[in-house]
Amino acid sequence: MKVIAMKNSIAVRLVILFSTASTLFLTGCKKFLEEKPTSALTDQYTFTTAAEGSALVIGAYRSMASYTGGAGDWGNYLPATLEYPTGKAYTSDTHVQFWKFQTNQTTGGLLQDFDNFWNNNYQGVRDCNLSIAKIPGITEWSPAQRSAALGEVRTLRAWYYFNLVRYFGDLVMDTSVLKSVADAQQPRSSLKAIYDNVIIPDLEYAVKQSSLADAKSTNGRVTKFVARTILSDVYLTCAGYPYQEVATDPTKNWCVDGLFAQSTYPVNTSSARDFLTKAQEQLNVLYGQYTLGTYNDLHNPAKNNSGEAIFQIQYLTNVSEMTGIIAAALPGLSHVSMFGDEYGTFIPSIGYFNSYNPADLRIKDRQMFYFSDTKSTKYDPAQGPADKFSQPHLYKYYDSVAIKSTAHSSLNWTIYRYADVLLMLTEVNWTLKQIGGAATDQDIIKGINEVRTRAMLPTYRASDVNLFNIMSERAYELVFENKMLWDQRRTRKCLVDGVGSFAGIQDFVGHQPVGFSFAFSKMNLLSPISQNEIATNGKCFQNFSFLPTQKGQ
Known about the structure:
The protein is mainly alpha-helical. Helices cover 40% and strands 5% of the residues. It has 21 helices and eight strands. The chain has a two-stranded antiparallel sheet with strand order 1-3. A two-stranded antiparallel ribbon has the order 2-6. It has a two-stranded antiparallel ribbon with strand order 4-5. α4 packs antiparallel against α7 and α10 runs antiparallel to α13. It is globular, with a radius of gyration of 23 Å. Keywords: Cell outer membrane, Membrane, Signal. It comes from Danxiaibacter flavus. It holds the Pfam family SusD_RagB. This is RagB/SusD family nutrient uptake outer membrane protein.
């Protein structure tokens, strides 16, 4: 939360007016993304019209596009920086400084890996805070319209905070519009307080009280189905770590002092059972509302906001694109695309790939991975074969039109899709049964078996399902969708690479990934607070064992 960024957001310009309300609500993705500022406003402006209300809602989305943005160096994109700490990523390129993750030398000043993630999400929080404060004053809207708008924006604020709290732990808690630079000088609040006072109430309002449509999102806008999905994930996370450990004594400085010690999962507490039961309720509503398509749907822009997609970040050619991460998933300097650069920095490790069952459809050529390609016409008009890949690369981000023809993509980034919901459903029901909750055998297997059936793998009986199989299936299905880091942290378990399957599951603390020079410690349960936040907010202390530390820490 840079002071400069904060000052810009509350005192200079709020470039959040995108068009008239009728245009915003009646058109699709293209109009949704076309930014047409109509004014330069401060937080003192009184918003009353329907068009201004629509602008307040759309403005809350602006930070989402930054999710796939850069992390400060050539080929370095934020989604990759969420995969590097898991031990399941690889790149031979030195620019991204992956070796610092391999040798435990990450700091809050590493390129912009942590600064950008912190700033982007806090910008989203501040945009939402402004909108939440102003939407009640939109007199041209009915109470139901104001309620739906608040449900939409509060869901987004919860999502931004959910990103931050899983990454950094305790956070600076901003829920109102900051009035001065001095307001930005705040200590971190307990992560439990962030969940209890912001994330969960925001999502529960959206699901239980707001007038949001209880339906699918077809244009990237939040609906109740979206809010239900995020809320399910939040409940599942709060049933695990670090929430359950912090709940034993929220007054302790868990993150700054590095007090984490528990590793038993599932966590058997009344609080965990309550969260899991609530997650089960939401997931049961979502079950059967979507269908699983083909793996090719995952990288086909024509399938944006449809099929199994539940919530996606919206991109559009020549307006806002995630072509950087598409190029990062290509073999480095391979000449297979029309892009000016092919980074080779967003690659699952060979050990990760080898841990798939050879019969798994997902690793067959041009399903979720691919093993060769032709040269781009940019380099060879005949499109002859490119050099043989040194290892498999992700095909799930292969937008063929962008790669082979235009160098521009309108492919969306998926935050949640139905396969994720199915796997959450299995984990929630299995976990509930382990700790004395209500779940049938059919409840446990139905989600995971739908995912496995699409992959052409044998189905499970309920007696076959355990944490190892659940985490393995999540790793196979959701590869490089930025899920594994959160799975590791909430379960405090890591998968061990194998051949034909993962070799086993280990406690997070003590696990040493292949290619890493150290074993994970409790330090690695969090990420370092951004260097700029430490520099500009004298009340924000650094996480355990990371640099830079706050003055006097």
